[in-house]
Amino acid sequence: MASSDQRSIHVLLVPFPVHQGHINPLLQFGKRLASHSGVRCTLAATRFVVNSTKPTPSSVHVAVFSDGCDGGGRDELGGVGAPYFEQLESAGSKTLDELLRSESELGRPVHVDTQRGAAGAAFLTQTCAVDILYVHAWAGRLPPPPLLQPEVIRGLDRLSCQLEMSDMPTFLADTSYHPSFRKLLVNQFLGLDTADHVLVNSFYDLEPQEADYLASTWRDKMVGPTIPSAFLDNRLPDDVSYGIHLHTPMIMESKAWLDAQKVQSVLYVSFGSMASLDPDQMSEIAEGLYNSGKQAILLEVLAHPSVGCFMTHCGWNSTVEALSAGVPMVAMPNWSDQTTNAKYIQDVWRVAVRVWPDAKGVVRSEEVEQRACGSREKMFSC
C-alpha cells in the first residue's frame, strides 16, 4: 500500500501478524524499497509482536496496531484458528484505520485503498505453485475435503509436476483442519483483480511456468527472494539478518560450536517457528540423527560453512535460504504449504530427499537415518 506526492513515496507494509514467517518477508521487501531515494517504509506490527521482540533497527520504521490480543497474542483465543481470525479482522481493521489517520500519505488494504486515494498492492508470501493451487480452489476447481479426489489433483494444469494428495497444502486436502484455514487462504484472492499490483515472494527462474500463469491471470510480479541481502547480493551492507525474532536465537553459542566443526560436516535441523512435534516424533528424529553419525544442530546457522545438509520442515523462507546458500535438504513437511514445497524441492528442483511417515503418521528413526546417512555428495543415493 502506498501514497505519494512530488517529494516522496510512503509505503505501509501490513503482514499477516501470526508469526515471523509472514512478517519477515514483507519486512525484507520493505528494506529493498527503502534503499531507493525518496521511499519511506513503515511496517505495521501488532502490539504483542512489538512487546515480544525488539525489532532490529533498520531502514523500515515500525508502527503498532492491535489485533485485540495485546497480552498473549493468538494464544489468548486458543491459537491460530477461526476465533483469532475473527478478532483480527474486527479489532485489526479498526486500529489500522486509526494508524492510517495518524500518519499521512499511507496506504490501506486493497478493499479500502480507493477510499484513501492510495495505491494498493497484495503481497503473496508463498510459492507460485502453492498460489496456483489456491487459485484453483478459489475458482471452484478443487472441492473441499473430503470431496477432493486424487484424479482431480492429477488433472491440474499450470504446474511443473503432477501432484498427489500427499503433496497438496494440508488446508486443501486434510479433513483434520478447520475450514476457516482454507477460507483464509482462498480469500486472499478476493479483490486481486482491482489491486494496483500483485507481488509474489518467488523468482522467475525458479518457477517459470507457474510465474507465467500468474502473470497472465493476476498480473503478478516476482519480487523474491525476500531474505537478508547478506545471503544474496550484498547490495544492502547492513542487512545481515531478519528484523523480527519471536524466538531468541542463540547466535553466539551456535557460531562458536560451528566454528570448531569440519566444513560441511554438520546437519542443520529446523522445523520453523510454529512446528509442534510430539515427544515420540522428536525421539525418533533424535535417534535417527544419532545413528546416522552426523553431527546435528537445531539453530539458525544455515549459511555457516560447516553446515553440509539441512533437515527442514520446508517452510518457504527456510527453503529459499537453503537454495540461496547452496545447501541440500532432507525434507520433513508438517502442514500448510510445506507438503507442496517438499514435492518441488525433491522432484522439480532436485535438491532434497524427503522422509515419509509410517501408517501411524510418525517418521521413524530408520527413515531419518537413511536419508541423513550420506555426505553432501552421497545424500541422494544413500
Features:
382 residues; Rossmann fold; five-stranded parallel sheet; 14% strand; alpha/beta; globular
Proportion of residues in extended strands: 5-15%
- Tell me the major beta sheet: 5 strands, parallel
CATH class (first level) name of the largest domain: Alpha Beta
Distance between the termini: 49 Å
Class derived from helix and strand content: alpha/beta
CATH superfamily of the largest domain: Glycogen Phosphorylase B
Helix content: 25-40%
Q: How many individual domains? A: 2
Under the CATH scheme, the architecture of the largest domain is 3-Layer(aba) Sandwich
Strand order of the largest sheet: 9-8-10-11-12
Note the total helix count. Answer: 14
Overall mean confidence score, pLDDT: 84
Compute the number of strand runs.
12
Write the CATH fold name of the largest domain: Rossmann fold
Compressed to H and E, one letter per element, the order equals EEHEHEHHEHHHHEHEHEHEEHEHEH
Rg, Å, rounded: 21 Å
Given the C-alpha coordinates, what overall shape results? globular
